[in-house]
Design a protein that fits this description.
10-stranded mixed sheet; alpha/beta; binds nicotinamide-adenine-dinucleotide
Length: 364
């Protein structure tokens, strides 16, 4: 079956790592047709926006996209391209699998067996952008409201962020996590929050999670507080399977989990909604190494594995995943950041690592 996928090469190292994806996918012989759409810093001057409408139209048409990292110009009044994509396409779930691949250096003593999926709510919480600068001028009425309605007196030097968490938003993300668990043969969902302190927001999330869990008797369910979870993930990461979290905790725990499997360079990701899915590496555009054949392509390649599973191209997904795992385990054709301690042989470039993975695909 042929699938047309929107491909956004992105900025910095984006074009180099997406080129590796194209050559590996060509080797798989799957019917993926790429519709290339440029976004980010490279189009900003000509199109006056880093995310032109044609990119969104292409994703709406194809329903699936693979995206390289894009730069958001700082201090020029542009919203982050990633935030804009999430909002425009209602990509309410951020999915970050963190699986350890032998050969990668991890600071965890026994990383084998780490195979987590983090499902983070993408639209609500303290990231909703409802903020008030410290001041008694324009925001005075809000401080007055707090005093009158809540009896809380805050000084004029206090900044305020609002944390909206809704029943509907919580229900759809927890349902997404259980559906993901069920369709991927996973055994347990852990809901994480700080319900003991923030009863009307995190408490709500916890209650909804418990309620949704009753609809999935075939998937185990447990609840943990986020501070305990940080410690658990460092000490016993192999005990966890699918984690579901509100936005802020999800952001933090996603990076913690990436850290224990070897860092953002090897962590894939996807932003998904009920209609569209955008797959992407979790690292940035790495401008310091751009154009030098130094970038590690593993994050975007593992995101491509996720994309192939999503497109129901199971065999192609497994072959690509197997080829990446084999090259990582063997350890000689990897980029400098993946070299093992004490290995003094020269590192491979981005292209050479890509070629080694493509050759493995042929052999599998
Ligand atoms: P970064 O991830 O680009 O770089 C941090 C460090 O990690 C750098 O030293 C870089 O060389 C290294 N690195 C990153 N990816 C690598 C790879 N594939 N192989 C080897 N080394 C790699 O983070 P940053 O410097 O904070 O951000 C740079 C730009 O990327 C910013 O404009 C930021 O807005 C953007 N960004 C985009 C995304 C995205 O599109 N998803 C995510 C994060 C940052």
């Amino acid at each position: 079956m042929t699938h047309t996928v929107t491909l956004v090469p992105g900025d910095g190292v984006g074009p180099e790592i997406t080129e590796v994806v194209r050559s590996c996918v060509a080797e798989l012989g799957t019917g993926i047709e790429w519709e290339v759409q440029q976004a980010g810093g490279s189009v900003l001057e000509a199109e006056k926006t880093p995310l032109p409408e044609r990119v969104l139209d292409s994703i709406r048409r194809n329903e699936v996209a693979l995206k390289g990292p894009v730069e958001t110009p700082i201090g020029k009044g542009f919203r982050s391209v990633n935030v804009q994509l999430r909002q425009s396409l209602d990509l309410f779930a951020s999915v970050r699998p963190c699986r350890y691949y032998p050969g990668i250096q991890s600071r965890i003593r026994d990383p084998e067996g780490i195979d987590l999926v983090i499902v983070r709510e993408n639209t609500e919480d303290l990231y909703a952008g409802i903020e008030f600068m410290e001041s008694c001028g324009a925001d005075g009425p809000f401080l007055r409201f707090l005093k009158e309605q809540k009896g809380v007196e805050l000084g004029c030097d206090t900044g305020i962020s609002i944390k909206p968490i809704s029943v509907s938003g919580s229900e759809r993300i927890v349902t997404f996590a259980f559906e993901h668990a069920r369709s991927n043969g996973r055994k347990k969902v852990t809901a994480i929050d700080k319900a003991n302190i923030m009863k009307y927001t995190d408490g709500l999330f916890m209650n909804v999670a418990e309620e949704v869990s009753r609809r999935y008797p075939d998937v185990a369910y447990e609840h943990k507080l986020v501070d305990n979870m940080c410690m658990q993930l460092v000490q016993y990461p192999e005990r966890y399977d699918v984690l579901v979290l509100p936005n802020l905790y999800g952001d933090i725990i996603s990076d913690l989990a990436a850290g224990i499997i070897g860092g953002l360079g090897v962590a894939p990701g996807a932003n998904m909604g009920s209609e569209y899915a955008v797959f992407e590496a979790t690292h940035g555009s790495a401008p310091d190494i751009a154009g030098r054949d130094l970038a590690n392509p593993v994050g975007i390649l593992l995101s491509t594995v996720l994309m192939l599973f999503h497109l129901d191209e199971r065999s192609a997904a497994e072959r690509l995943q197997g080829a990446i795992a084999a090259v990582l385990q063997e350890g000689s054709q990897v980029t400098a950041d993946l070299k093992r301690k004490g290995d003094t042989t020269p590192a491979a470039g981005t292209r050479a690592m890509g070629r080694a993975i493509a050759e493995r695909i042929q052999a599998l």
